[in-house]
Every structure is written in structure tokens, then in C-alpha cells.
Design brief:
0% strand, MetI-like fold, 74% helix, mainly alpha
Length: 292
């Protein structure tokens, strides 16, 4: 007969690994700082309309005004408030970065898990295709595709995801190859679970930890690609992006440094934050560190 305290013991046993994982994450100071910065960025993106001191599109006669006099980060060549534009640019940056990484993660995980589970000719074909994508310079391919087919937030997200799935696919494949002969998978086959059910319900959930770590790093890469496209004038012309702000400011680097410093610092902080969080997730989810 089960003791009255057995339920509490079971819950505490399940909670202990989570507590240890969170403790490992909290010990990683850069990861904690990065997570805090990301929380700030998310809040800024959500409440940009309330946090922005001025209309980011409003043109004034106060052109290239230095920081101060009602403009904390100064104004650009059209008299627009730089701080307001940086705040609103956070929305596009996070939208592109997170959406592109998420789409690439879904595509890569699906393709890699199928390749790893079924193997054979299908696995060979998928891996050769992924290798073909990996040897291509992603940024230059993104520039070529956007230049040929037009800019736009949706297109930029799709292009970045399209170029970013191979590394996820190879990671998912490796994890599935490691897991597919484990006893819990054999048990799932024994009770009659279908192949795609085994992949989606058994293999992918157990392989997701390193995939999530790589996904967080892909967000940083997506932000850099989007900023580069914006700097080259290939981002959505109707959207406020940090990259397009840098593109507009390049003529005034010597005379109005604040127009380039502000979006440049914002890009750097966002990229470093996602990289730091990725390192923290790796520490938190690394099975070799469990129990420490």
C-alpha cells in the first residue's frame, strides 16, 4: 500500500531536477544578465507605443541634433527622434529573429528527425541537401534572394529560416540516431505506436534540449542577417529596423555619431543576450551536468 507521503515524495523527486537545472542557469552570470536584457527587450517591444517619447516617423526641423534638448539619443537627418526609432525597431528585430529561428527550428527538427529515424537513401539525400546549404555563405545568399524577389518582413523571415534549418536538422538527426534504439522506443513499437507517432511523441521531446540551445543561437544569427539586409537597404522600407537606421546614418558617422551608435549598441546587446542565454541553456540542459 502506498504511503500518504508517497505523492509528495514523487512530486519533490520530479521538481529536484528542475531546481538543479535552474540553479545551474542562475550560476551562469552572463546568462542571467542576458536573460534580464532579453526580458527588457521583450517589454520594450510590447509597450513601444507607450515607452516611445515621440512619434518615430515624425519629421522636424531639429535635424542631427545632439543628445539632449528633449531628445535623449538625439535626432537623425530628418529630425526624427532616434530613441523613439530604436524603441520601435525592437519590435521588428525580435519578430524577425524569433520567427525565423522558430520556423527554421520546426523545419530542421522535422527533417532531421525523419532522416535519423528512417535512415537509408532518405537520410543520405537529406544530409547531402543540408551540406549543400551549409557550404553556401548564408548572408550573401540572403542578399541575392531578397534582391531578386523583393524585400518585406515576411520574405526576410522565410529566407533566414530557409538558410538556417540545416544545422538544426543535423543536430536533430544525431539525437534521433542516438535515441531510436533505446528501450522506451522499443516499448513504444511493442504497443503498436506508429512510426510518426514515435518520432513526434517519443524521440523529438527527448531530443529537444540541444535543439533549443541551437535555436537560441540561431535567433542571434537571424538578428545579424536582418540588420545586414537593412544596412544594405534590402529590408522592408515601411518598417523601422535597426539595420535601416544604420543605413541612413552611415553618411553622418563623423558628424552625428549618435545616429549610428544607438542602433549599433542595440543590435550588439540583443545578439550578445541571445548568445549568453544559449550558453546558459546549454549548462542547464546538459545531461553531463545533472546532479551538480
Amino acid at each position: 500500500m502506498q504511503s500518504p507521503d508517497s505523492g509528495d515524495s514523487l512530486e519533490s523527486g520530479e521538481a529536484r531536477p528542475r531546481a538543479l537545472a535552474l540553479r545551474r542557469f542562475s550560476r551562469n552570470v552572463p546568462a542571467v544578465i542576458g536573460a534580464s536584457l532579453l526580458l527588457v527587450l521583450v517589454l520594450v517591444a510590447l509597450f513601444a507605443d507607450f515607452l516611445s517619447p515621440l512619434d518615430p516617423m515624425a519629421i522636424s526641423r531639429e535635424r542631427l541634433e545632439a543628445p539632449g534638448n528633449g531628445h535623449f539619443m538625439g535626432t537623425d537627418e530628418l529630425g526624427r527622434d532616434v530613441l523613439s526609432r530604436v524603441i520601435h525597431g525592437t519590435r521588428v528585430t525580435l519578430l524577425v529573429g524569433v520567427s525565423a529561428a522558430a520556423l527554421g527550428l520546426v523545419i530542421g527538427t522535422t527533417v532531421g528527425a525523419i532522416a535519423g529515424y528512417f535512415g537509408g537513401v532518405l537520410d543520405t539525400i537529406i544530409m547531402r541537401i543540408s551540406e549543400m546549404f551549409q557550404i553556401m555563405p548564408n548572408f550573401f545568399v540572403a542578399v541575392l534572394i531578397v534582391a531578386l524577389f523583393g524585400s518585406g518582413i515576411g520574405r526576410v523571415i522565410f529566407v533566414i529560416a530557409f538558410l538556417g534549418w540545416p544545422i538544426i536538422a543535423r543536430l536533430a538527426r544525431a539525437e534521433v540516431l542516438r535515441l531510436k534504439e533505446q528501450q522506451f522506443v522499443e516499448a513504444a513499437r511493442a504497443i503498436g505506436l506508429g512510426r510518426f507517432s514515435i518520432i513526434s511523441k517519443e524521440l523529438v521531446p527527448n531530443a529537444i534540449a540541444p535543439i533549443l540551445v541551437q535555436g537560441s543561437l540561431n535567433v542571434a544569427a537571424a538578428i545579424l542577417i536582418e540588420a545586414g539586409l537593412g544596412f544594405l537597404g534590402l529590408s522592408d522600407p515601411d518598417a523601422i529596423t535597426w539595420g535601416s537606421m544604420l543605413q541612413n546614418a552611415k553618411k553622418y558617422v563623423a558628424t552625428a555619431w549618435w545616429t549610428s551608435i544607438s542602433p549599433g549598441v542595440a543590435i550588439s546587446l540583443a545578439v550578445l543576450s541571445f548568445n549568453a542565454v544559449g550558453d546558459g541553456l546549454n549548462d542547464m540542459l546538459n545531461p553531463q551536468l545533472r546532479g551538480k
